[in-house]
Amino acid sequence: MNHLSIQKKVQIVNLLVEGNSMRSIMRILDVSKGAVAKLLVEVGRACMAFHNDTVINVKASKIQADEIWAYVGCKDKNATDEQKDSGMGDAWTWVGIDADTKLVVSWFVGNRSAESATIFMQDMASRLSNRVQLTTDGHHAYLEGVTDAFGSYIDYAQLIKIYGSSSDSSSPTERKYSPSKLKSIEKHLVSGKPDKEHISTSYVERQNLTMRMHMRRFTRLTNGFSKKLENHMHAIALHFVYYNFVKQHNSLRITPAMAAGLTKRFMTLEDIVTMIPERKPNRPLSYKKKAA
Q1: N or C, fewer C-beta in 10 Å, the chain?
Q2: How much is the mean pLDDT over the chain?
């Protein structure tokens, strides 16, 4: 990958964050799959380090959290125990977003267990500088995770949506692919004094759609799913740094990071590429010949 210019790397990253698959990038830019995969790994690591160092002491008032499903290699129901041990199977991405600035404060890739919820919430709590109002869906794992991470220092509520039949159509195909009908919504106060008017998960659910639109590996019913858990996590790290620091939010007219006061300017894709640390050459640049 060393032979790729900065401009070519920026082109690859640009196509990645706009939802192109690795193979389509190979065809469009005439580069090898190895070059694309290697760049994704390096830029993903750099983005994770950048997020960890930059998204801290966030001043927020309302946080929404949700989890989005994808899979690596194959779905859980088709994966063997050996494949699951290697990272294959269902992969849930837990996401927490600031409802005001639209900043994605924290994310975590794991399963839907209470352990994953706790790790996710502990990371979220470590990045916030003040007490917040938190809204999640009714997934029971959140109860343990929020308590372990925040204790009583939070205003927490769950928004529970009740769904009915997916379609009135008699066609099995239409019923399979049509969204379920929302029958009712219940707001459950869990701890503190959350404002009922702001108990919502609308923004984080919209972020779920953004993830599916901007990462090919999240697109349903295709063969673009992740084949390696490591690459899946690197792609997510790249997506969130791009979303937080580069992409202009339509309603804000600035980036979420600018709205949250984490930066004063728009970052560029070239900024992201140059975050990759320079690698030392594999061999000395000069050497002396041995005496005959």
Answers
A1: C
A2: 91
